[in-house]
Amino acid sequence: MPLTHWRSRHRTSPGMAARTLIVGAGDAGRTLAHDLQQTPSYGLIPIGFLDDDVRKRHVARLPVLGRLAQLTDLVRAEAVDVVIVAIPSLPPVELAALLREASLSGARVRYLPTFHAAVQRGSRAADLYEVSPATLLGRDEINVVRTVTPTLIRGRRVLVTGAGGSIGSELCRQVRAYRPEALFMLDHDESNLHRLQLEITGEALLDADELIVADIRDRARVDQLFATLRPEIVFHAAAHKHLPLLERHPCEGVKTNVQGTQHLIDAAAAHGAHRFVLISTDKAAAPTSVLGATKRLAELVVRGHAGNSTVAGSVRFGNVLGSRGSFLDVLAHQIAAHEPVTITDPDADRFFMTVEEAVGLVLEAAGMAETGETFVLDMGDPVRLRSLVETYAAQVGEHDVEIRFTGLRPGEKLSEVLFSASEQRIPTGHPRVFATRGEPAPPDLDAGLGELYEAAERNDNDAVGDWLAKLVPGYRPAARGRPPSARALFGTLYPDDF
């Protein structure tokens, strides 16, 4: 159902300077207006301000047109193309409400950074940020990392698996800043490592010992690496994470998400690693998918090492803003390409967190873990995907976006939970981080895992589904379709399936 928005016929046409309303007539707004007036190449013509200080009539030779509450009326009356929020101290909840109001009136929205440095240097027009999806969520970004965390990393040998992914690469950047003795970045994709080295060092010669090409499914290779590198802290981010693909290829999910984790935690314990943190997902809390079930099993594998010399724990993520393949990543690409936006269901919602919050949770868990706990960030209320699409589309100037509802796919849920019904929510030393130890692993877990791995090695999807159901409390395999035939993939070019 397409979105419709009122838009004045008097607004600027493509190629003309955009009529711009500045919200906030303080120092930041005044400097910004002057900068825009002096620099026509920005393509923004300031026409006036909004400010709640009724004593202000004119600022920077521009009129103060009204108060913040009059935003919608003034956007329409003045045919405003762009609204710039120039109040860096505005609380996130108020900012989110203001942005929604402006964007749904048909204007594009930009804002200034909220850090003090921008204000101190005069809030130049070059500081303008496009509104990020994180701003739309209406909650403060949580500073998870405490002052004790850097001391955990400094001078240690650290290994990050899945280092070239969205979470792994941000982990590497932050860990590197804490001055470890060595940072080993492992990925099975050499292109990921090439991009990561370029981002971190500015060079991509691929000749550094810190870059490691390896597959965590190769037990002998994993053991060799731990024996040689002797990492003291391990952050395990490597995984298969796309739910629909794992429903069709469950054996691959087991080989990477479960058996790969087993290889790593066993090697960590055998070679004296001090701490091990697994990155899991909220889909593991009450799993209805292969992704959730394999990640829940990975949590159990890690928890099974509680009490050993290696302190291990897990973290559960919601949908991470900006990560490759996430909902918002796909949304941004669809809107930029002027394609219909696809959502499973009008009522579907998800928990969201920023990449920085996700990495902060991983680092914090490394210091808080004691007995195999799983840690979860308080992400506030889940966000309805349809609402997020509508607001985001309006803010980037796409006012006629078509939304198509595809229906829930096998294994998908309308809503996720952070804890299962049998898990206790335990406070930690951080007010926004909670832990759970969950139910104990079944006594025959090791034997069951052996059967599961053998079934995965045989690529027996049905047997893998049966063993996941036996080993993961509450999980039942969804109905799986056949892999697509050649005719489905290539049309009717071939008379028969391969």
How would you describe this protein?
The protein is an alpha/beta fold. It folds into two domains: 114 residues, 3-Layer(aba) Sandwich (Rossmann fold); 323 residues, Rossmann fold (3-Layer(aba) Sandwich). The chain has 18 helices and 22 strands. The strands form five sheets. It has a nine-stranded mixed β-sheet with strand order 10-9-8-11-12-13-18-22-21, with helices on both faces. Helix 7 crosses helix 14 and helix 11 crosses helix 16. The longest helix has 21 residues. The N terminus and C terminus are likely disordered. It comes from Amycolatopsis viridis. InterPro entries: NAD(P)-bd_dom_sf (IPR036291), Polysac_CapD-like (IPR003869), Polysaccharide_Synthase-Rel (IPR051203). Belongs to the polysaccharide synthase family. This is FlaA1/EpsC-like NDP-sugar epimerase.
